[in-house]
Amino acid sequence: MVIFKKITDLKSYLSDKRRHQKIGFVPTMGALHQGHLHLVKESMKNNLLTVVSVFVNPTQFNDIEDFNKYPNTLSTDIEQLASVKCDVLFCPSANEMYPDGFGEKVTFNIGNIDKVLEGTFRPGHFNGVCQIVDKLLKIVEPDHLFMGQKDYQQSMVVQSMLENYYKDHPVKLHVVPTVRSSSGLALSSRNERLSSTARQNALAIYNRLTWIKDNLDNMSIQDLENGAEEHLLKNGFTKIDYVAIADAKSLEPVSIYNKEVKTVILIAAFIDGVRLIDNLLVN
Ligand code: AMP
Fold first, then answer.
1. Count of Cβ atoms closer than 10 Å to residue 98 Cβ
2. Domain 189-278's class?
3. In whole numbers, what is the pLDDT of the chain averaged over residues?
4. Which CATH number is 2-176 given?
5. Between vectors from CA 68 to CA 270 and to CA 134, what angle results, nearest 5°?
6. Which UniProt keywords are present, listed alphabetically (predicted)?
7. Is the model's pTM score more than 0.85?
8. Which strand ranges, in their side-by-side order, compose the sheet holding 49-54?
9. Which run of H or of E encompasses 14?
10. Residues forming CATH 3.30.1300.10 domain(s) in the chain
11. For the chain, where do the domains classified as CATH 3.40.50.620 start and end?
12. Whose alpha carbon is nearest atom 17 of ligand 1?
């Protein structure tokens, strides 16, 4: 695996390589786990020269505490990426990515998809995501981009950004299913910050996602959402941002479940001071 910290070095390396092989790109914030590695393996499986970035992007954190506590495990990240034979790691400094500071004003017009759910609870978050993904895409110029369903709304926002801003340089987005522990907990770098009790209690999220899915035909949407919130609060969660049953294409709330309409259940809630998100597609 080749490791680059400088944009110019990575670009010149890729300019030669891209003549022979298509490029697959996996952007991450590090603290890598099997979920991230699954994205890398998907890219490798498609015979792509696979570039992973590890960069904790300050502009997508609406909570400075969350940013300060974000785990940094670069040496083990490197070992993990090397173990799956990843081709290239790009791990730039903050100064390399934001030479003019983090105050750079850029606004992405994404439609409505970034205004609901995460957009409501984390103002500015998706604009920060678009800002860094756009910078990275312009550096790596991949043919394929791999992102996780774990961040369902994020993948929709990025798809919309690609449609609105990358018409002339098409990048194919692959959304890869969420990797879970054997108990169902979605793997997340933030799980590292949970105590063992909280980690056990955190299973309530997946438990309620499947409970809602199993009861969509015989309970009202309101009762399902309220029932799930109550269960989470009884199981160690201290604050619920949302339990939402939504149209999987628009993220508009669903008022009556219709099997014919692709539907997604999404949860964001705090446990042990850590905000966890997860989702489940139901049809
Ligand atoms: P992050 O480092 O959290 O920004 O995540 C980098 C990429 O990995 C994003 O596209 C995430 O959706 C994806 N990802 C994170 N956790 C998982 C998981 N458990 N399963 C699949 N993909 C994941």
1. 18
2. alpha beta
3. 97
4. 3.40.50.620
5. 90
6. ATP-binding, Cytoplasm, Ligase, Nucleotide-binding, Pantothenate biosynthesis
7. yes
8. 2-4, 88-90, 49-54, 23-28, 144-148, 172-176
9. helix 7-17
10. 189-278
11. 2-176
12. 35
* Rounded-to-integer distance, Cα 188 and Cα 221, Å: 28
Q: Which residues line ligand 1 (CB under 6 A)?
A: 28-29, 35-36, 38-39, 147-148, 150-151, 176, 178-179, 186-189
Distance 151 CA to ligand 1 centre (A): 7
Catalytic positions are 36
| Whole-number percent of the chain with pLDDT over 70 | 100
Mutate to test the pocket of ligand 1, among 28, 55, 176 (most ligand atoms within 8 A of CB): 28
Distance 147 CA to ligand 1 centre (A): 7
Residues of the chain above pLDDT 90, percent:
97
Mean pLDDT by 10 residues, the chain (283 residues): 98 97 98 98 97 97 92 97 98 97 89 95 96 98 98 98 95 98 96 95 98 97 98 98 98 96 98 97 95
Instruction: Dump pLDDT digits (tens) for 211-267.
Output: 999 999 999 999 999 999 999 999 999 999 999 999 999 999 999 999 999 999 999
The verdict on whether residue 179 carries a ligand-binding annotation is: yes
